[in-house]
Structure formats: C-alpha cells, structure tokens
Amino acid sequence: MEWGMANRMAQLIQSDGHALFLPVDHGYFQGPTRKLEEPRKTIEPLLPYADALFITRGVLRTSVNADNSKPIILRVSGGTSVVGKDLANEGITTSMEEVIRLNASAVGISIFVGTDYEKESLLNLSKLVDEGTRYGIPVMAVTAVGRELEKRDARYLALSCRIAAELGARVVKTYWCEDFEKVVTGCPVPVIMAGGPHVDTELEVFEFVYDGMQRGAIGVNLGRNIWQNDYPVAMIKAIRAIVHQNATAKEADELYNSEKKVKAKKS
Q1: Which residue, of 45, 65, 78, 219, has the greatest Cβ tally within 10 A?
Q2: What integer best gives the mean pLDDT of the chain?
Q3: Contacts of 229 (CB under 8 A, 6+ apart)
C-alpha cells in the first residue's frame, strides 16, 4: 500500500484497529432531518469523541471549523431524494479534485445491490476506486438498501459487502444483522456497522453494537442512534467505550445513565 493511502487509513482506523465514525450526511437525501436541522449545533459537542466525520462538502464548509483535526470522510454520491422516484439511482456528485481541495482522508459512496440501479452504482464505485487509487485516497462503500429494508439479512449483506471489497473498497459500511459473522468473514476488508433494527432503548443499541464488535466489525458509523438521542454526548461516550475499551452492553448502559444524570443536573 502506498504511503499516502496507508497514512489516510491510519487516520481513520485507530491504533487498536477500531474506529468510531460519526455520519452527518443524511441531509443529502433527507433534507433537514430531525436534530440535524442545524448541523453545526449537532456536530460540535460530538466531534471530540468521534474518530472521523462522514459528511458532505456543503455541510463541511458551512458547519465545521477549518482548524478541525479529525479526519473527514466525504460523501460523494447522491442525486436522489426521499421524495424522488428511486433512491438507488445515485451518481457521483463530487470530483476527486474537490476531495483533495478539502483535504479529506477518504470518500464514501453508496451501492444498491439487487435494485434496478445495481450496475450503475457498482460502476460508480469502480470509477471512484480508480480515482482514489490514483491519488492515494481510500473509498468506503456503503451497502445501502433504499426502501427495501427487508433485505437486511446476512445473506444479502454478505453478498453486498463482498462485491464492494472485490471492486476495491478499502472499508465497507453495512448494517448489523443476525449471524453478522457471516457478513464479516466473507469480506476481506474492514467492516463498519451502520446500524441495526429499530429499537426502543439505548441498551438495545449497545447490545447490537457489542454483538457486532464481537463478531468481527472494527467499529461503527452510527448517526441517528447518537444525535437523535436526548443525550447525544452520553450516547457517543457509551458507544465509544464498546468500540475502544471493549465495554459490554451493560457497562455501556451504565456509563450512558451516569453521563445522563450529570447532564441532567447541570441543566
């Protein structure tokens, strides 16, 4: 691996081999989604606890100070929205020149395996990998499923992750699922968890994060589970404890509740 590529990967994946990415890119297809209406207010208190920020160029320029030292993963796919005909019909929205100009450490792109736009999204990934390799910039593939959420099972996600790795992605972001080890085992590059099933409690979030880490994920890329929580800083601290300190779900829940009480007293 070239020095530049290796250096950027080392910025993203910490010395313990794990990573906590904070995605705030949701507005590129959802608009001002709940608790991300004003991105700067959402990002600033959480940034110290993230290993990298997954973000679009527009929000990076407007909502993150230029003296930020945390690595940036730039979202470079889009062109569709929640009110459009098909979320899977994405294209590449940002040039590699722009990525370099913004000093990003990596780029992220969605792929939509099993949809009408499977071929286009996979060729987008391939093109981006070629350009990233030329300039030493790693590509993170996101195994998006659009509105077809029933496809979040091990067989489908293992297929999607393996294809992404085969096409040259350096990291793959995918959903947690039952039998998650089948997804990780079949993917020869690091796997980051995007999320899991809809849950009602923080403990359930900690449980699927812990399970995924035990089954081979190197970390998480969790957004709404963190910044839509009533106590987002407590939430990211607890998840960080699982990712980087091997805390159990119960220990993370205890940390969350402790941090929550401190915050409640101050307010």
Answers
A1: 219
A2: 95
A3: 202, 235
For residue 196, pLDDT over 80 is answered with: no
pLDDT tier at 150 (50, 70, 90 boundaries)? low
> What value does the mean pLDDT take over residues 95-114?
97
For the 3-223 domain, the top CATH level (class) is alpha beta
Three-state SS for the chain is CCHHHHHHHHHHCCCCCCEEEEECCCHHHHCCCCCCCCHHHHHCCCHHHCCEEEECHHHHHHHCCCCCCCCEEEECEECCCCCCCCCCCCEECCCHHHHHHCCCCEEEEEECCCCCCHHHHHHHHHHHHHHHHHHCCCEEEEECCCCCHHHCCHHHHHHHHHHHHHCCCCEEEECCCCCHHHHHHCCCCCEEECCCCCCCCHHHHHHHHHHHHHCCCCEEECCHHHHCCCCHHHHHHHHHHHHHHCCCHHHHHHHHHHHHHHHHHHC
pLDDT at residue number 147 = 59
Active site residue 85: no
Task: Flag whether pLDDT at 182 surpasses 80.
Answer: yes
Q: By the 8 A CB rule, do 252 and 241 touch?
A: yes
Residue 199 has φ and ψ, to the nearest 5°, of -130, 165
Bridge partners for 19 per DSSP: 219
Q: Which residue among the candidates 173, 237, 263, 265 is catalytic per the annotation?
A: 173
| 195's tokens | 């999320």
pLDDT in tens, 1-59: 899 999 999 999 999 999 999 999 999 999 999 999 999 999 999 999 999 999 999 99
Residue type, 235: M
User: CA 77 → CA 44, 48, 111, 239, 247, distances in Å?
Assistant: 24, 26, 9, 27, 34
